[in-house]
Amino acid sequence: MTDTAPLLEIEGLHASAGDHQILNGVDLTVRRGEIHALMGPNGSGKSTLANVLMGNPTYKVTEGSVRYRGEDITSAPATDRGAAGMFLAFQHPEAIPGVSVLQFLRQALSNRTGTDLTVLELRLKVMDAMKDLGMESSFADRYLNEGFSGGERKRNEVLQMAVLEPELAIMDETDSGLDIDALRTVADGVNKLATPDRGFLIITHYQRLLDFITPDIVHIFMDGRILDSGGPELATRLEADGYESFRSVIT
User: Fold this and answer.
1) Strands 86-89 and 168-172
2) Which residues have C-beta within 8 Å of that of residue 129, sequence separation ≥ 6?
3) DSSP character for 236?
4) Over the stretch 187-214, which tens digit does the pLDDT of each residue have?
5) Of 37, 108, 157, 240, whose Cβ has the fewest other Cβ atoms within 10 Å?
6) Long-range CB contact pairs, 40-46, < 8 A, 24+
7) How far is Cα 120 from Cα 110, in angstroms, rounded to an integer?
8) 3-state secondary structure at position 223
9) Cα–Cα distance between 187 and 144 in angstroms, integer?
10) Which helix (H) or strand (E) is 229 found in, with range?
11) SS3 sequence of 160-185
């Protein structure tokens, strides 16, 4: 892997689940320091793209390639992608009863960096991150996502990013199900984590998240491929005209 190559390069990506073709030729490049917003209606293949990028074996790449920091990872397992610095914030994070947030982060950080911090060292690191994100310290000792509200689950995803320090963060509809206060909290966390060395791919179908996070590039995603790309003004046009205004691009 090289530091001069783009963080993420997707070329002609096609993918399917079983006999159903979902991605139909995706081309996308994310460089360090960039925030990309991928916007599309329900059923357009956005979550499939996120899962394919992270190596979910449910989906099969049938054509094209995915490169991370210059290395072809099209066939790499999810564990390798995570260890290399890729991170996926799920649309619906799973609960894991019996495993505390702190225990989970300790194992995840060990897998990410190969370093085993003591419980005290990790607790101090997590407490610092939680303070920066405005989270209650008791959060660390709760079982992972068990009994969490939707907003708490999404804030927990941001906490994981703060502790694991990925180079590429993919956020799959993080705004789904959030009220305005929770949305603002999550967006503030993302803005704090945006650095010149980190890239973001934020997947959403609402413009409201972009009221709090200003993307460098907006992509309109429909029918398994990107139809148009531009600056933040593209999201404003989408809000005014809707997705149907982009249908004419599809041939």
Assistant:
1) parallel
2) 159, 162, 163
3) H
4) 888 899 999 999 999 998 878 888 899 9
5) 240
6) 40/203, 40/205, 40/220, 40/221, 40/222, 40/243, 41/205, 41/222, 41/243, 42/205, 44/205, 44/221, 44/222, 44/223, 44/224, 45/221, 45/223, 45/224, 45/225, 46/172, 46/173, 46/203, 46/205, 46/221
7) 15
8) coil
9) 21
10) strand 225-230
11) HHHHHCCCEEEEECCCCCCCHHHHHH
Task: Measure the CA–CA gap between 80 and 85, rounded to whole angstroms.
Answer: 9
Position 20, amino acid: H
Tokens of 76: 């790499």
Which amino acid appears at position 56 of this protein? N
12 token code pair:
């002609």
Neighbouring residues of 122: CB distance < 8 A, sequence distance ≥ 6 = 102, 105, 106, 109
Q: Which two tokens stand for residue 85?
A: 């610095």
Q: Are 112 and 82 in contact (CB under 8 A)?
A: yes
Answer yes or no: is pLDDT of 152 > 90: no
How far, rounded to the nearest angstrom, does the alpha carbon of residue 234 sit from its chain's CA centroid?
Answer: 20
Vertex 114: Cα angle to 112 and 119 (nearest 5) = 90
